[in-house]
Amino acid sequence: MPSFRILIVEDDKPVMNLISTTLKVHDYSHIIAENGKEAISQSVSQKPDLVLLDLGLPDIDGIEVIKSIRSWSQMPVIVISARGEDSDKISALDAGADDYLTKPFSVDELLARIRAVQRRLSYMESRNESAIFTDGALKIDYAAAEVTVRDRNVHLTPIEYKLLVLLSQNTGKVLTHAFIIRSIWGTGVETDILSLRVYMAALRKKLADPEGKEQYITTHIGIGYSLERVAQ
Ligand code: CA
Fold first, then answer.
1. β-pairing, 50-53 with 29-33?
2. How many angstroms separate the alpha carbon of residue 65 from the centre of ligand 1?
């Protein structure tokens, strides 16, 4: 099996060395880019399985690199940046980043995020073969547009169903408020974060597991929502 290949985009040599050594020790192969233009050309020519991206690059901003990659590819991008404000995370996630780590970061956390990307990729491969989504007691039959929790039918409004499908198709990924609103209502529609919050609260209530153990939807305060894999 070909090994998982990661493109590291970083202009800071010590950080680059830390990441590349960590990847090597854990049997990931890697390629490197020290600026944004190199990052774009490497992602086109080398088609890595994952990009680890610094935002503060010497030539163009990392956000521009994400936008450029997203114009032709869905390859996973994890941002590793010193910019730690929520607004920075939101603009990176909105541009299409899959995840965000703030510097200084822990090597163990980086490895855990990489494993999460690998799980999502293998899940997406298996999903292509199946029209049924399951997560713990939650089951979505995409073909029949039917949702059950512990075999109990859950009656969702069309918008609640669309929200759940969007989240389930991006399991483990934080979707920003703006991304969700754009995906569900399209652009130019007057829907705000407050109404989204109301829809999500209703959805969450309907999905509540009668045994009360499983929380599918995670709220990321000030950022958005994600659907998480619950323990099997
Ligand atoms: Ca930098």
1. unpaired
2. 13
